[in-house]
Specification:
This protein is of the alpha/beta class and 262 residues long. It is 40% helix and 16% strand. It is built from 9 helices and 9 strands. The strands form 2 sheets. It has a 7-stranded parallel beta sheet with strand order 1-2-3-6-7-8-9. The chain has a two-stranded antiparallel sheet with strand order 4-5. β1, α2 and β2 form a beta-alpha-beta unit.
Amino acid sequence: MEPGALAVLVEEAGQESLFFAEHTHIPAARTTPYGDGRELPRKYWHTHDLFVTLTAAAVATSRLRIGSGVCLVTQRDPIITAKQVASIDVLSGGRLEFGVGAGWNREEMENHGTDPRTRMALLRERVEAMKQIWTQDEATYHGQHVDFDRIWSWPKPAQRPHPPVLVGGSGPTVHERVLAFGDAWFPNHAPSVIERARDLRARADRPIDLMVMGAPADPRVLEQYEQAGFRRVVHWLPSHPRGPVERALEQWESAIADLHGE
């Protein structure tokens, strides 16, 4: 399904949000392993541009929140990305959720000139620099990886101070990134997520939203996340034509109904 039609389908089903993944490309010669060593699914290199997709989803809907799940900020210029984020947030009426991540495919990021060894520091500086651009009439940022002096950039986001920054990832240092520059933690579904979320909130000195992506259509799993205080649980839909997508969405709706005893 194309993203506008998909967004309409999801909104009409009463869902709260729709997220899109990002990969600019996948290197044909790759040594970075995927997941548990399985073959990388074809859908990873058959994706529209993230921000074009978000725009298509935004203009086709009126209530649905749209988001990046996640934007590979380490592969993007922060000044351009800040303008894209702000523009879509304004044009959607403040409905953008900005999920960010450092990426896992080392060859992919190297093709963008990013050193995998410093990608976490790069991610932090680029997000911090974008926050300056979104919130300051005249923005300046000086870091080790990002450096610019006195720039003007409009529009500013519709949401104040900026769209929510959802930090993806499940690595050992992800909580440091959430606490440093995130509004929420947005990891992939895994058995350890709930326990790690408790630890994150115990360390935080401000409210941190909890959300998870890739959860199965299982009311028992949904109940565990609900009881643990997760505000948003996201389920993958297949990259297929309308029929399989509708069936998958119906299964997801049924799991939610079972959770609530409907």
